[in-house]
Amino acid sequence: MQFRFLDGTRFFSKKNEKKVAHSPEISIFVNWFRKLRIVIEKIKKYYQRKAIGKVVQRSNRPVKGVSFNSAKYIGILYQIEEEKSYVVLSAYVDKLMAAGKTLRIVGYHDSKYVPFFCIPKLKYDFFCQKEQNWVGIPNAPFVDEFVNEPFDMLVDLSLKPMFPLTYILAKSAARFKVGSRCAEKEPFLDLMIELNENHTVNDLMSFINDYTNKLNGE
């Protein structure tokens, strides 16, 4: 990105970056811009908490524990980071479908566009930053359909909190919600899986399968 002074002189370019680094005018601008971003982020967080609070107040979801083996209709939330993560998701879905599960998947990519490798398939839906409002609430039409589905189990496979996915998790009508433990998601999960920094999404998939079956004596 390049900017110009009122006299047309460019700054933040390779030719004059050293000169800019010592410019008091630019330093003031950069500091002001950083503070503005912090304020905007705080406002955004405030409205995110408010939106989640409204969802919680309206929730009257009945909870019914179910084992992974017994669950017939499963919803999956997933964060798509790179092509490898999509491949992992696809392999997991293929495995569950082979076991006779009925699935619906919503994936989120934290950028302005859904990547090319996210191939549209039946029961797969993907969204990105362009399909959410400024607070981070998803506004893609399929999200409303997803949150109203009476899943036997909703599996949140995100390893770190992402507000758009957390919002869907909170609003979902699923009878049983499972995912990794973290403060942001804790109020909305019926079963939390403790992970460390070395665990992968494959580990989470395995833990969810094992722990839900053990809870139900299978």
How are the SSEs placed, and which strands pair?
Elements: E1 3-4, E2 10-11, H1 17-21, H2 24-58, E3 73-79, H3 83-98, E4 102-108, E5 124-127, H4 141-147, E6 153-156, H5 163-171, E7 177-180, E8 191-193, H6 201-215
Parallel strand pairs: 3-4, 3-6, 4-5, 6-7, 7-8
Antiparallel strand pairs: 1-2
Helix pairs in contact: 2-5
What does this entry show, briefly?
The protein is of the alpha/beta class and 218 residues long. The chain is built from 6 helices and 8 strands.
Account of the protein in words:
This protein has 218 residues and is an alpha/beta fold. It folds into 2 domains: 17-58; 73-215, Glycogen Phosphorylase B (Rossmann fold). The protein is 40% helix and 15% strand. The protein is built from 6 helices and 8 strands. It has helices at residues 17-21, 24-58, 83-98, 141-147, 163-171, 201-215, and strands at 3-4, 10-11, 73-79, 102-108, 124-127, 153-156, 177-180, 191-193. The strands form 2 sheets. It has a 6-stranded parallel β-sheet with strand order 5-4-3-6-7-8, with helices on both faces. Strands 1-2 form a two-stranded antiparallel ribbon. The chain starts with a strand and ends with a helix. The model is unreliable at 1-14 (pLDDT under 50).
